[in-house]
Structures are given as C-alpha cells and as structure tokens.
C-alpha cells in the first residue's frame, strides 16, 4: 500500500461529537497491521487526545468495534490489507449510538434495550438445590446454544437499519438474547420474556433484512433468533425441557 510514493496509510478519523469532522493522518503501513494498530499508532505518536475503546486486542471483548470504511467491525481482528482502499481508511464510531467523543460512543441505549427485552436470566433454583438436568442435545438447548455466544459488542445494533429508523426497536442483540432465554429450561421468567419480545418495538418490528447476521463478528444469526420469536408469536412458544 503506497501513498505519496512511500509505504504509508492515509487515515481519516472522526474527531469530536455529532458536530465534529474528519481529520486526516498518515501512518506507516506495516505487515499484518490491524485497524486497531493504526488507531493506536495515531494516538501514541500524533494525537494523544484521540478517544477510542479497546481491551483484549484478540477478539474476545468486542470493545474496539468501530465503523471502518462504512462497515461496523472489530478493529482488533480486521487486517488493514483486507479492507484498505488504495491505502486509505475512514474510521468513525459505531452508528445508531450517541457519540461521546471521537471513536467512542455511549452504549447505554444498547444495554437499556437488552434489559427491556427481558435479557436477565432468572433462575428457579437456589444454591441448595441440585443442578437442573438439561439434555444438551434437546432441540431447545441446541437452539439456545446456537445463539448464546453474543458478547454484546453492538456491531449488529450499529448495522441495523430498523434501529436507525425506529428509536423504540429493541435491536438484534436484545432479541437474540430473549430467544436464548425462551429456549432455556432454567429460566424462570419465560412468559415475561416472551411478552417483552412481542411488545411495541419488539420482534415484529424487524424487517428481516439480515444485516445483523451479515455483520456479526462471531458468526451468530440474530435474524434467525428473531424469526423464532415471530413463529412463537403465531404458533405458540416452543416447549423446553
């Protein structure tokens, strides 16, 4: 990747809040360089006040998610060589969330909707009770297990057009979580979770465009989970055991 005759990248980074603007930086292009490496290079050597989030750097926490060349991604697992267009990167905070500063956004609405969808697991047993036996090969458990690896990085929320149109829409991650609980025999508030998932702004607001599934960094399919909730609305909730 070359710009101006030398091995370097041109990086456009959003600075400020909603009334901010893009600023351009140039950084060395290195082998196996990730987008998060580029952001760190800018912050350490050119713009110490640059605000962004990261933690694990290995694709476990999801903290480093940003909008990269128009698409929400984990920046720690996105190699520059795979997405840089003519040696240029454009970096913004995740969409559909309030901007705090630069590349950092406020995840409060995302987590509030997760709670509104009934995302908290409520057990039916105490510490004194023996563990509840759950058949790992039962249909309900397989369905729950297929969707349970969400780490709440908010990439799907940022990618969802319905979230952008409808401020009340719970969003893919919250509804995906609701679907896992509906299929969990140990969850003691199943009916309440279903009611929340079917409420205004719930699963019936989804337009089934599939952006959540297309962009999920861990390969989950929130669109399938939402479809499951819609089927439950029509035909009754699935049985769990």
Alpha-carbon Rg, integer: 20 Å
Number of domains: 2
CATH architectural label of the largest domain: Orthogonal Bundle
Broad structural category: alpha+beta
The CATH homologous superfamily name of the largest domain equals: Alpha-helical ferredoxin
- CATH class descriptor name of the largest domain: Mainly Alpha
Show unreliable segments.
1-5
Strand content: 5-15%
CATH-defined fold name of the largest domain: Fumarate Reductase Iron-sulfur Protein, Chain B, domain 2
- Strand tally, please? 7
3D shape = elongated
- Identify the strand order in the major beta sheet: 2-1-5-3-4
Number of helices: 10
Q: What percent of residues adopt helix (DSSP H or I)?
A: 25-40%
Mean pLDDT over the full residue set: 92
Largest sheet: 5 strands, mixed
Distance between the first and last residues' Cα:
55 Å
* Order of secondary-structure elements: EEHEEHEEEHHHHHHHH
Explain this structure to me?
There is one protein chain. The protein is α+β, with helices and mostly antiparallel strands and 241 residues long. The chain folds into 2 domains: 8-105, Ubiquitin-like (UB roll) (Roll), CATH 3.10.20.30; 108-235, Fumarate Reductase Iron-sulfur Protein, Chain B, domain 2 (Orthogonal Bundle). It is built from 10 helices and 7 strands. The chain has helices at 35-45, 80-83, 108-116, 139-147, 155-159, 161-165, 172-182, 190-198, 211-215, 222-235; strands at residues 8-15, 21-28, 65-68, 71-74, 88-92, 99-101, 104-105. The strands form 2 sheets. The chain has a 5-stranded mixed β-sheet. It has a two-stranded antiparallel sheet with strand order 6-7. Strand 1 and strand 2 (21-28) form a beta hairpin. Helix 3 (108-116) packs parallel to helix 7. The longest helix is centred in the C-terminal third of the chain and has 14 residues, at 222-235. It starts with 7 loop residues before the first strand and ends in a 6-residue tail after the last helix. Residues 1-5 have low confidence and may be disordered.
